[in-house]
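Justification of computing resources. Each target in the renewal requires a structure prediction run like the one illustrated here; the chain below, 554 residues long, is used simply to show the kind of job we budget for.
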Amino acid sequence: MSFCRNTSQQMNIFDPLYKLTDREQKILKNTWAEEFSNTIFPLISEERFSVIYSSNPASRPNNPVNVYMGLLMLKEIFTQSDEEAINSLLFDIRYQYALHTTSFKEQPISKNSLTNFRTAVYRYNEEHGVDLIQEEIESHANEFTKLLNIDGRTIRMDSLMTSSSCKRLSRLEIIYSCVSRLINKIQKIGTIPLSKKYNPYLEEGHRNETIYRSKDKDIETKLTIVTADAIELLHLYKDTIIETSEDFLLLSRMLGEQTKLTADGKMELKPSKEISPVSLQNPTDPDATYRRKGTKNYTGFVGNAVESFNEKERIITHYDLQQNTYSDQSFSKDIIDKIGKQKETTKILVDGAYYSEDISKKATSNNIELVPTNLVGRIASSEKTGYEKFNIDEVIHTVKNCPAGHVPLDSKYKKGVYRAHFQKEHCDNCPHQSNCPVTKQKKQYLFEVSETKLHCAVQRIKMGTAEYHKIASKRAGVEGIPSTLRRQYDIDNLPVRGIVRSKIWLGLKIGAINCKRYIKSRTLSTNKVLFSILYDHLLEVFCFQRSAAANLAA
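Resulting C-alpha coordinates:
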Protein backbone atom coordinates (compact mmCIF):
# COMPACT_ATOMS: atom_id res chain seq x y z
CA MET A 1 0.00 0.00 0.00
CA SER A 2 1.55 3.30 -1.10
CA PHE A 3 1.38 6.62 0.72
CA CYS A 4 -1.05 9.20 -0.60
CA ARG A 5 -1.97 12.53 0.97
CA ASN A 6 -5.59 13.30 1.81
CA THR A 7 -6.54 15.82 -0.88
CA SER A 8 -10.31 15.34 -0.54
CA GLN A 9 -10.86 18.44 1.58
CA GLN A 10 -13.27 20.35 -0.67
CA MET A 11 -17.00 20.06 0.02
CA ASN A 12 -19.20 18.97 -2.88
CA ILE A 13 -22.71 20.25 -3.64
CA PHE A 14 -24.29 17.13 -2.17
CA ASP A 15 -22.52 17.49 1.18
CA PRO A 16 -24.89 16.60 4.08
CA LEU A 17 -23.92 19.86 5.80
CA TYR A 18 -25.89 21.79 3.19
CA LYS A 19 -29.01 19.84 4.14
CA LEU A 20 -28.86 21.06 7.73
CA THR A 21 -31.15 23.88 8.74
CA ASP A 22 -29.66 27.16 9.94
CA ARG A 23 -30.50 26.19 13.49
CA GLU A 24 -28.79 22.79 13.13
CA GLN A 25 -25.70 24.38 11.56
CA LYS A 26 -25.50 26.88 14.40
CA ILE A 27 -25.71 24.08 16.98
CA LEU A 28 -23.01 22.08 15.14
CA LYS A 29 -20.64 25.05 15.12
CA ASN A 30 -21.08 25.46 18.87
CA THR A 31 -19.93 21.88 19.56
CA TRP A 32 -16.40 20.51 20.11
CA ALA A 33 -16.36 19.47 16.44
CA GLU A 34 -15.89 23.07 15.27
CA GLU A 35 -12.63 23.59 17.16
CA PHE A 36 -11.37 20.11 16.32
CA SER A 37 -12.11 20.65 12.62
CA ASN A 38 -10.58 24.13 12.40
CA THR A 39 -7.50 23.73 14.59
CA ILE A 40 -6.65 20.20 15.67
CA PHE A 41 -7.30 18.21 12.48
CA PRO A 42 -5.08 20.50 10.32
CA LEU A 43 -2.21 19.95 12.80
CA ILE A 44 -2.01 16.22 11.97
CA SER A 45 1.06 15.58 9.81
CA GLU A 46 0.35 12.96 7.17
CA GLU A 47 3.95 13.01 5.92
CA ARG A 48 5.20 11.85 9.32
CA PHE A 49 3.44 8.51 8.80
CA SER A 50 4.47 8.07 5.16
CA VAL A 51 7.36 5.85 6.32
CA ILE A 52 4.99 3.03 7.31
CA TYR A 53 3.73 2.71 3.73
CA SER A 54 5.30 1.43 0.53
CA SER A 55 7.25 3.79 -1.72
CA ASN A 56 5.94 1.98 -4.81
CA PRO A 57 3.45 4.36 -6.50
CA ALA A 58 1.93 1.46 -8.44
CA SER A 59 0.49 -0.16 -5.31
CA ARG A 60 -2.95 0.62 -3.90
CA PRO A 61 -3.08 4.04 -2.16
CA ASN A 62 -3.69 4.21 1.57
CA ASN A 63 -6.77 5.61 3.24
CA PRO A 64 -6.32 9.11 4.75
CA VAL A 65 -3.78 8.95 7.57
CA ASN A 66 -5.07 12.11 9.22
CA VAL A 67 -8.54 10.56 9.47
CA TYR A 68 -7.06 7.50 11.22
CA MET A 69 -5.03 9.63 13.63
CA GLY A 70 -7.90 12.03 14.26
CA LEU A 71 -10.34 9.20 14.95
CA LEU A 72 -7.88 7.56 17.37
CA MET A 73 -7.69 10.83 19.28
CA LEU A 74 -11.49 11.22 19.33
CA LYS A 75 -11.77 7.61 20.48
CA GLU A 76 -9.64 8.44 23.53
CA ILE A 77 -11.35 11.79 24.15
CA PHE A 78 -14.70 10.04 24.49
CA THR A 79 -13.19 6.81 25.97
CA GLN A 80 -14.66 4.59 23.27
CA SER A 81 -13.73 1.18 21.91
CA ASP A 82 -12.56 0.89 18.29
CA GLU A 83 -15.99 -0.32 17.23
CA GLU A 84 -17.77 2.54 19.00
CA ALA A 85 -15.45 5.11 17.42
CA ILE A 86 -15.99 3.67 13.93
CA ASN A 87 -19.76 3.63 14.44
CA SER A 88 -19.62 7.25 15.58
CA LEU A 89 -17.78 8.22 12.41
CA LEU A 90 -20.33 6.38 10.27
CA PHE A 91 -23.44 7.81 11.90
CA ASP A 92 -22.48 10.99 13.80
CA ILE A 93 -22.12 14.10 11.64
CA ARG A 94 -20.03 15.77 14.36
CA TYR A 95 -17.29 13.17 13.86
CA GLN A 96 -17.49 13.57 10.08
CA TYR A 97 -17.39 17.35 10.39
CA ALA A 98 -14.39 17.18 12.77
CA LEU A 99 -12.48 14.86 10.41
CA HIS A 100 -13.49 16.63 7.16
CA THR A 101 -15.25 13.56 5.74
CA THR A 102 -18.80 14.88 5.29
CA SER A 103 -18.40 14.84 1.49
CA PHE A 104 -17.03 11.29 1.35
CA LYS A 105 -19.35 8.83 -0.39
CA GLU A 106 -18.11 6.14 2.02
CA GLN A 107 -16.30 6.84 5.27
CA PRO A 108 -12.63 5.81 4.71
CA ILE A 109 -12.48 3.31 7.53
CA SER A 110 -13.36 -0.32 8.17
CA LYS A 111 -13.48 -2.81 11.03
CA ASN A 112 -9.72 -3.43 11.30
CA SER A 113 -8.44 -0.05 10.10
CA LEU A 114 -7.42 1.32 13.50
CA THR A 115 -5.82 -1.96 14.59
CA ASN A 116 -3.82 -2.21 11.36
CA PHE A 117 -2.67 1.40 11.66
CA ARG A 118 -1.47 0.93 15.26
CA THR A 119 0.26 -2.31 14.25
CA ALA A 120 2.12 -0.55 11.43
CA VAL A 121 3.26 2.19 13.82
CA TYR A 122 4.33 -0.47 16.37
CA ARG A 123 6.38 -2.40 13.80
CA TYR A 124 8.11 0.75 12.62
CA ASN A 125 9.03 1.54 16.22
CA GLU A 126 10.36 -1.99 16.75
CA GLU A 127 12.51 -1.79 13.60
CA HIS A 128 13.73 1.81 13.77
CA GLY A 129 13.29 2.88 17.40
CA VAL A 130 11.14 5.86 16.38
CA ASP A 131 7.79 6.47 18.08
CA LEU A 132 5.71 8.25 15.43
CA ILE A 133 2.75 8.69 17.79
CA GLN A 134 4.94 10.42 20.39
CA GLU A 135 6.40 12.74 17.75
CA GLU A 136 2.89 13.63 16.54
CA ILE A 137 1.38 14.21 19.99
CA GLU A 138 4.32 16.32 21.17
CA SER A 139 4.17 18.31 17.92
CA HIS A 140 0.50 19.08 18.61
CA ALA A 141 1.38 20.06 22.19
CA ASN A 142 3.97 22.52 20.93
CA GLU A 143 1.35 24.19 18.73
CA PHE A 144 -1.19 24.25 21.56
CA THR A 145 1.27 26.10 23.82
CA LYS A 146 1.68 28.77 21.14
CA LEU A 147 -2.07 29.13 20.63
CA LEU A 148 -2.67 29.36 24.38
CA ASN A 149 0.25 31.78 24.97
CA ILE A 150 2.17 29.39 27.23
CA ASP A 151 5.82 30.50 27.03
CA GLY A 152 7.27 27.25 28.42
CA ARG A 153 9.62 29.06 30.81
CA THR A 154 8.13 27.15 33.76
CA ILE A 155 7.36 23.45 33.50
CA ARG A 156 6.64 20.68 35.99
CA MET A 157 7.02 16.90 36.06
CA ASP A 158 5.43 13.91 37.73
CA SER A 159 5.63 10.15 37.27
CA LEU A 160 3.14 7.34 37.73
CA MET A 161 3.40 3.59 38.10
CA THR A 162 1.29 1.75 35.54
CA SER A 163 0.32 -1.90 35.87
CA SER A 164 0.66 -4.42 33.09
CA SER A 165 -2.54 -6.28 32.24
CA CYS A 166 -0.67 -9.57 32.71
CA LYS A 167 -1.13 -11.62 35.87
CA ARG A 168 1.59 -11.47 38.49
CA LEU A 169 3.08 -14.97 38.69
CA SER A 170 4.91 -16.86 41.40
CA ARG A 171 8.38 -18.21 40.71
CA LEU A 172 7.02 -21.69 40.02
CA GLU A 173 4.40 -20.26 37.63
CA ILE A 174 7.03 -18.31 35.67
CA ILE A 175 9.28 -21.34 35.17
CA TYR A 176 6.37 -23.67 34.43
CA SER A 177 4.85 -21.23 31.91
CA CYS A 178 8.12 -20.95 29.97
CA VAL A 179 8.52 -24.74 29.84
CA SER A 180 4.88 -25.34 28.88
CA ARG A 181 4.91 -22.68 26.12
CA LEU A 182 8.02 -24.13 24.49
CA ILE A 183 6.69 -27.71 24.63
CA ASN A 184 3.39 -26.61 23.06
CA LYS A 185 5.32 -24.72 20.37
CA ILE A 186 7.36 -27.83 19.51
CA GLN A 187 4.20 -29.95 19.44
CA LYS A 188 2.49 -27.44 17.14
CA ILE A 189 5.37 -27.44 14.64
CA GLY A 190 5.21 -31.22 14.46
CA THR A 191 8.48 -31.75 12.57
CA ILE A 192 10.70 -31.66 15.67
CA PRO A 193 10.83 -34.81 17.85
CA LEU A 194 9.48 -34.39 21.38
CA SER A 195 10.18 -36.89 24.15
CA LYS A 196 7.16 -38.58 25.74
CA LYS A 197 8.58 -37.38 29.04
CA TYR A 198 7.05 -33.96 28.32
CA ASN A 199 3.57 -35.18 27.36
CA PRO A 200 2.11 -34.28 30.80
CA TYR A 201 2.74 -30.59 29.99
CA LEU A 202 0.30 -30.98 27.08
CA GLU A 203 -2.49 -32.26 29.32
CA GLU A 204 -5.20 -29.79 30.31
CA GLY A 205 -5.09 -30.27 34.09
CA HIS A 206 -1.33 -30.59 34.50
CA ARG A 207 -0.75 -26.88 35.18
CA ASN A 208 -3.33 -26.73 37.98
CA GLU A 209 -2.05 -29.99 39.46
CA THR A 210 1.54 -28.75 39.48
CA ILE A 211 1.03 -25.18 40.65
CA TYR A 212 -2.23 -24.77 42.53
CA ARG A 213 -2.69 -28.18 44.13
CA SER A 214 0.64 -28.19 45.91
CA LYS A 215 1.38 -28.12 49.60
CA ASP A 216 3.92 -25.55 50.75
CA LYS A 217 6.42 -28.27 51.61
CA ASP A 218 6.24 -29.59 48.02
CA ILE A 219 6.93 -26.25 46.27
CA GLU A 220 10.73 -26.53 46.39
CA THR A 221 10.63 -30.08 45.03
CA LYS A 222 8.38 -29.07 42.14
CA LEU A 223 10.56 -26.03 41.43
CA THR A 224 13.58 -28.30 41.14
CA ILE A 225 11.77 -30.75 38.82
CA VAL A 226 10.35 -28.06 36.49
CA THR A 227 13.70 -26.22 36.39
CA ALA A 228 15.46 -29.48 35.47
CA ASP A 229 13.00 -29.92 32.59
CA ALA A 230 13.71 -26.34 31.45
CA ILE A 231 17.48 -26.92 31.50
CA GLU A 232 17.10 -30.16 29.56
CA LEU A 233 14.91 -28.47 26.92
CA LEU A 234 17.48 -25.69 26.55
CA HIS A 235 20.26 -28.17 25.77
CA LEU A 236 18.08 -30.37 23.53
CA TYR A 237 16.82 -27.64 21.20
CA LYS A 238 19.49 -24.92 21.26
CA ASP A 239 20.84 -25.88 17.83
CA THR A 240 17.51 -26.53 16.10
CA ILE A 241 15.12 -24.32 14.12
CA ILE A 242 13.17 -23.67 17.32
CA GLU A 243 16.18 -21.79 18.72
CA THR A 244 15.09 -18.47 17.18
CA SER A 245 11.47 -18.70 18.34
CA GLU A 246 10.14 -16.30 20.97
CA ASP A 247 9.26 -19.19 23.32
CA PHE A 248 12.80 -20.60 23.24
CA LEU A 249 14.31 -17.16 23.79
CA LEU A 250 12.02 -16.60 26.78
CA LEU A 251 13.02 -19.97 28.26
CA SER A 252 16.69 -19.11 27.76
CA ARG A 253 16.21 -15.68 29.35
CA MET A 254 14.29 -17.15 32.28
CA LEU A 255 17.04 -19.67 33.04
CA GLY A 256 19.67 -16.94 32.85
CA GLU A 257 17.75 -14.94 35.46
CA GLN A 258 16.52 -17.74 37.73
CA THR A 259 19.63 -19.97 37.84
CA LYS A 260 23.39 -19.72 38.30
CA LEU A 261 26.34 -21.91 37.41
CA THR A 262 27.95 -23.98 40.15
CA ALA A 263 31.68 -24.70 40.45
CA ASP A 264 31.27 -27.90 38.40
CA GLY A 265 29.45 -26.04 35.60
CA LYS A 266 25.91 -27.15 36.42
CA MET A 267 22.87 -24.85 36.66
CA GLU A 268 21.03 -24.51 39.94
CA LEU A 269 18.27 -22.20 41.21
CA LYS A 270 19.33 -18.86 42.66
CA PRO A 271 18.09 -17.80 46.10
CA SER A 272 15.00 -15.60 45.68
CA LYS A 273 16.81 -12.50 46.98
CA GLU A 274 19.35 -12.69 44.14
CA ILE A 275 16.75 -12.42 41.37
CA SER A 276 16.76 -9.02 39.66
CA PRO A 277 13.62 -6.81 39.55
CA VAL A 278 14.07 -6.63 35.76
CA SER A 279 13.77 -10.40 35.43
CA LEU A 280 10.90 -11.98 33.50
CA GLN A 281 7.62 -11.47 35.41
CA ASN A 282 5.27 -13.13 32.92
CA PRO A 283 6.01 -14.69 29.49
CA THR A 284 2.94 -12.92 28.07
CA ASP A 285 4.55 -9.52 28.79
CA PRO A 286 8.35 -9.85 28.65
CA ASP A 287 8.87 -6.09 29.05
CA ALA A 288 7.09 -5.78 32.42
CA THR A 289 9.34 -5.42 35.46
CA TYR A 290 8.84 -5.60 39.23
CA ARG A 291 9.15 -2.74 41.69
CA ARG A 292 8.16 -2.19 45.27
CA LYS A 293 7.29 1.44 46.01
CA GLY A 294 6.25 2.26 49.54
CA THR A 295 4.00 -0.56 50.71
CA LYS A 296 2.77 -1.53 47.22
CA ASN A 297 4.13 -4.01 44.68
CA TYR A 298 3.96 -3.15 40.98
CA THR A 299 4.44 -5.25 37.86
CA GLY A 300 4.49 -3.11 34.76
CA PHE A 301 5.95 0.22 33.71
CA VAL A 302 6.51 3.79 34.86
CA GLY A 303 5.31 6.84 32.96
CA ASN A 304 6.50 10.43 33.13
CA ALA A 305 4.59 13.57 32.14
CA VAL A 306 6.02 17.06 31.59
CA GLU A 307 3.57 19.95 31.68
CA SER A 308 4.00 23.57 30.53
CA PHE A 309 1.64 26.04 32.13
CA ASN A 310 0.76 29.64 32.85
CA GLU A 311 -1.76 31.18 35.23
CA LYS A 312 -4.76 29.90 33.24
CA GLU A 313 -3.71 27.13 30.85
CA ARG A 314 -1.65 23.93 30.91
CA ILE A 315 -0.53 21.43 28.26
CA ILE A 316 1.43 18.16 28.53
CA THR A 317 4.39 18.85 26.25
CA HIS A 318 6.47 15.68 26.75
CA TYR A 319 5.90 12.17 28.06
CA ASP A 320 7.71 8.86 28.32
CA LEU A 321 7.16 5.24 29.37
CA GLN A 322 9.90 2.96 30.68
CA GLN A 323 10.29 -0.23 32.69
CA ASN A 324 9.25 0.54 36.25
CA THR A 325 12.82 0.18 37.54
CA TYR A 326 13.63 3.42 35.70
CA SER A 327 14.29 6.18 38.23
CA ASP A 328 12.84 9.68 38.40
CA GLN A 329 16.39 11.04 38.20
CA SER A 330 16.82 9.27 34.86
CA PHE A 331 13.66 11.00 33.63
CA SER A 332 15.18 14.32 34.77
CA LYS A 333 18.32 13.70 32.71
CA ASP A 334 16.23 12.67 29.71
CA ILE A 335 14.09 15.80 29.70
CA ILE A 336 17.13 18.07 30.11
CA ASP A 337 18.72 16.36 27.09
CA LYS A 338 15.47 16.60 25.14
CA ILE A 339 14.76 20.30 25.59
CA GLY A 340 18.47 21.16 25.36
CA LYS A 341 20.15 24.52 25.84
CA GLN A 342 17.62 27.25 26.64
CA LYS A 343 17.88 30.86 25.45
CA GLU A 344 16.02 32.08 28.53
CA THR A 345 16.18 30.55 32.00
CA THR A 346 13.67 27.72 32.29
CA LYS A 347 12.44 26.43 35.64
CA ILE A 348 11.51 22.76 36.06
CA LEU A 349 9.41 22.11 39.17
CA VAL A 350 10.02 18.59 40.52
CA ASP A 351 9.78 16.59 43.71
CA GLY A 352 12.86 15.41 45.57
CA ALA A 353 13.14 12.08 43.74
CA TYR A 354 13.98 13.90 40.48
CA TYR A 355 16.77 15.97 42.03
CA SER A 356 20.45 15.35 42.63
CA GLU A 357 23.56 17.51 42.74
CA ASP A 358 24.87 16.15 39.42
CA ILE A 359 21.53 16.65 37.66
CA SER A 360 21.33 20.20 39.00
CA LYS A 361 24.76 20.95 37.50
CA LYS A 362 23.70 19.43 34.19
CA ALA A 363 20.56 21.58 34.21
CA THR A 364 22.48 24.75 35.06
CA SER A 365 24.84 24.18 32.11
CA ASN A 366 21.74 24.23 29.87
CA ASN A 367 20.33 27.42 31.45
CA ILE A 368 17.74 25.32 33.31
CA GLU A 369 16.95 25.63 37.01
CA LEU A 370 15.66 22.58 38.85
CA VAL A 371 13.23 23.62 41.58
CA PRO A 372 12.64 20.65 43.94
CA THR A 373 9.75 20.81 46.39
CA ASN A 374 11.76 18.72 48.85
CA LEU A 375 15.07 16.87 49.04
CA VAL A 376 15.63 13.16 49.48
CA GLY A 377 17.90 12.16 52.34
CA ARG A 378 18.49 12.80 56.03
CA ILE A 379 18.04 16.38 57.22
CA ALA A 380 20.95 17.72 59.27
CA SER A 381 20.32 18.59 62.91
CA SER A 382 18.85 22.06 63.29
CA GLU A 383 21.02 22.54 66.38
CA LYS A 384 24.18 22.65 64.25
CA THR A 385 25.31 25.78 62.40
CA GLY A 386 24.84 25.01 58.74
CA TYR A 387 27.78 24.30 56.45
CA GLU A 388 26.40 26.99 54.16
CA LYS A 389 27.29 29.68 56.75
CA PHE A 390 31.01 29.12 56.23
CA ASN A 391 32.52 31.50 53.68
CA ILE A 392 33.67 29.17 50.89
CA ASP A 393 34.96 30.32 47.51
CA GLU A 394 33.91 27.57 45.11
CA VAL A 395 35.89 29.09 42.23
CA ILE A 396 39.28 28.64 43.88
CA HIS A 397 37.97 25.92 46.25
CA THR A 398 39.03 27.60 49.48
CA VAL A 399 37.44 27.96 52.93
CA LYS A 400 37.95 31.66 53.72
CA ASN A 401 36.49 31.94 57.21
CA CYS A 402 33.92 30.50 59.63
CA PRO A 403 30.59 32.15 60.61
CA ALA A 404 32.39 33.90 63.49
CA GLY A 405 34.91 35.41 61.06
CA HIS A 406 37.95 33.31 62.02
CA VAL A 407 40.36 32.48 59.19
CA PRO A 408 41.45 28.81 59.02
CA LEU A 409 45.05 27.74 59.56
CA ASP A 410 44.88 25.87 56.26
CA SER A 411 42.33 24.95 53.61
CA LYS A 412 42.45 22.03 51.19
CA TYR A 413 40.15 20.67 48.50
CA LYS A 414 40.45 17.14 47.18
CA LYS A 415 38.02 14.82 45.37
CA GLY A 416 35.04 17.09 45.98
CA VAL A 417 35.69 17.54 49.73
CA TYR A 418 36.70 20.74 51.57
CA ARG A 419 38.94 20.42 54.65
CA ALA A 420 40.07 23.29 56.87
CA HIS A 421 41.68 23.51 60.32
CA PHE A 422 40.87 26.24 62.85
CA GLN A 423 42.83 27.33 65.92
CA LYS A 424 41.82 25.54 69.09
CA GLU A 425 41.75 28.78 71.08
CA HIS A 426 39.31 30.42 68.67
CA CYS A 427 36.89 27.49 68.67
CA ASP A 428 37.05 26.84 72.43
CA ASN A 429 36.01 30.41 73.18
CA CYS A 430 33.51 30.76 70.33
CA PRO A 431 29.85 31.22 71.44
CA HIS A 432 28.74 29.09 68.46
CA GLN A 433 31.06 26.19 69.30
CA SER A 434 28.33 23.87 70.63
CA ASN A 435 26.32 24.22 67.42
CA CYS A 436 29.20 24.22 64.94
CA PRO A 437 29.79 21.23 62.61
CA VAL A 438 33.57 21.25 63.26
CA THR A 439 35.25 18.20 64.81
CA LYS A 440 37.51 18.62 67.84
CA GLN A 441 41.01 17.22 67.44
CA LYS A 442 44.01 17.14 69.77
CA LYS A 443 45.58 20.47 68.70
CA GLN A 444 42.94 22.07 66.48
CA TYR A 445 39.41 21.81 65.08
CA LEU A 446 38.61 20.25 61.70
CA PHE A 447 35.92 21.51 59.34
CA GLU A 448 35.07 18.96 56.62
CA VAL A 449 32.26 19.00 54.08
CA SER A 450 31.67 17.53 50.64
CA GLU A 451 30.47 19.69 47.77
CA THR A 452 27.26 17.69 47.62
CA LYS A 453 26.50 18.20 51.32
CA LEU A 454 27.37 21.89 51.06
CA HIS A 455 25.10 22.49 48.08
CA CYS A 456 22.34 20.50 49.76
CA ALA A 457 22.58 22.75 52.82
CA VAL A 458 22.49 25.86 50.61
CA GLN A 459 19.49 24.45 48.75
CA ARG A 460 17.59 23.78 52.00
CA ILE A 461 18.11 27.39 53.11
CA LYS A 462 16.89 28.61 49.71
CA MET A 463 13.85 26.34 49.94
CA GLY A 464 12.86 27.98 53.22
CA THR A 465 12.22 31.39 51.64
CA ALA A 466 8.70 32.65 50.89
CA GLU A 467 9.59 33.34 47.25
CA TYR A 468 10.77 29.76 46.74
CA HIS A 469 7.63 28.36 48.38
CA LYS A 470 5.47 30.43 46.03
CA ILE A 471 7.17 28.96 42.93
CA ALA A 472 7.51 25.38 44.21
CA SER A 473 3.86 25.21 45.28
CA LYS A 474 2.83 25.40 41.62
CA ARG A 475 4.16 21.89 41.05
CA ALA A 476 1.11 20.40 42.79
CA GLY A 477 -0.97 20.99 39.66
CA VAL A 478 0.82 18.28 37.69
CA GLU A 479 -0.17 15.59 40.21
CA GLY A 480 -3.66 15.53 38.71
CA ILE A 481 -2.35 13.86 35.53
CA PRO A 482 -1.77 10.39 37.08
CA SER A 483 -5.22 10.58 38.67
CA THR A 484 -6.83 11.56 35.35
CA LEU A 485 -5.06 8.75 33.49
CA ARG A 486 -6.29 6.22 36.04
CA ARG A 487 -9.85 7.43 36.59
CA GLN A 488 -10.85 8.58 33.12
CA TYR A 489 -8.53 6.64 30.83
CA ASP A 490 -8.03 3.36 32.74
CA ILE A 491 -4.27 3.38 32.17
CA ASP A 492 -3.78 0.29 34.38
CA ASN A 493 -5.99 -1.89 32.18
CA LEU A 494 -4.69 -1.39 28.66
CA PRO A 495 -5.84 -3.98 26.10
CA VAL A 496 -2.21 -4.46 24.97
CA ARG A 497 1.03 -5.72 26.47
CA GLY A 498 4.65 -4.77 25.93
CA ILE A 499 6.28 -1.41 26.48
CA VAL A 500 6.13 -0.25 22.84
CA ARG A 501 2.43 -0.96 22.39
CA SER A 502 1.62 0.46 25.84
CA LYS A 503 3.48 3.67 25.02
CA ILE A 504 1.43 4.09 21.83
CA TRP A 505 -1.78 3.88 23.87
CA LEU A 506 -0.38 6.22 26.53
CA GLY A 507 0.51 8.75 23.83
CA LEU A 508 -3.02 8.77 22.43
CA LYS A 509 -4.44 9.29 25.93
CA ILE A 510 -2.02 12.19 26.52
CA GLY A 511 -3.16 13.63 23.18
CA ALA A 512 -6.79 13.32 24.29
CA ILE A 513 -6.08 15.21 27.52
CA ASN A 514 -4.38 18.02 25.59
CA CYS A 515 -7.19 18.25 23.02
CA LYS A 516 -9.84 18.45 25.73
CA ARG A 517 -7.90 21.16 27.54
CA TYR A 518 -7.45 23.17 24.35
CA ILE A 519 -11.09 22.86 23.25
CA LYS A 520 -12.30 23.74 26.74
CA SER A 521 -10.04 26.79 26.85
CA ARG A 522 -11.19 28.05 23.45
CA THR A 523 -14.84 27.42 24.27
CA LEU A 524 -14.59 29.30 27.56
CA SER A 525 -12.75 32.22 25.96
CA THR A 526 -15.43 32.43 23.24
CA ASN A 527 -18.17 32.40 25.86
CA LYS A 528 -16.41 35.14 27.81
CA VAL A 529 -16.31 37.32 24.70
CA LEU A 530 -20.02 36.69 24.07
CA PHE A 531 -20.88 37.45 27.70
CA SER A 532 -18.83 40.64 27.48
CA ILE A 533 -20.64 41.75 24.31
CA LEU A 534 -24.02 40.91 25.86
CA TYR A 535 -23.11 42.76 29.05
CA ASP A 536 -22.04 45.87 27.12
CA HIS A 537 -25.22 45.73 25.05
CA LEU A 538 -27.47 45.42 28.10
CA LEU A 539 -25.55 48.20 29.82
CA GLU A 540 -26.13 50.50 26.83
CA VAL A 541 -29.85 49.63 26.75
CA PHE A 542 -30.16 50.18 30.49
CA CYS A 543 -28.34 53.53 30.34
CA PHE A 544 -30.48 54.63 27.37
CA GLN A 545 -33.68 53.74 29.24
CA ARG A 546 -32.54 55.64 32.32
CA SER A 547 -31.62 58.66 30.19
CA ALA A 548 -34.96 58.57 28.36
CA ALA A 549 -36.87 58.28 31.63
CA ALA A 550 -34.98 61.25 33.05
CA ASN A 551 -35.78 63.36 29.98
CA LEU A 552 -39.49 62.51 30.21
CA ALA A 553 -39.56 63.40 33.89
CA ALA A 554 -37.96 66.76 33.13
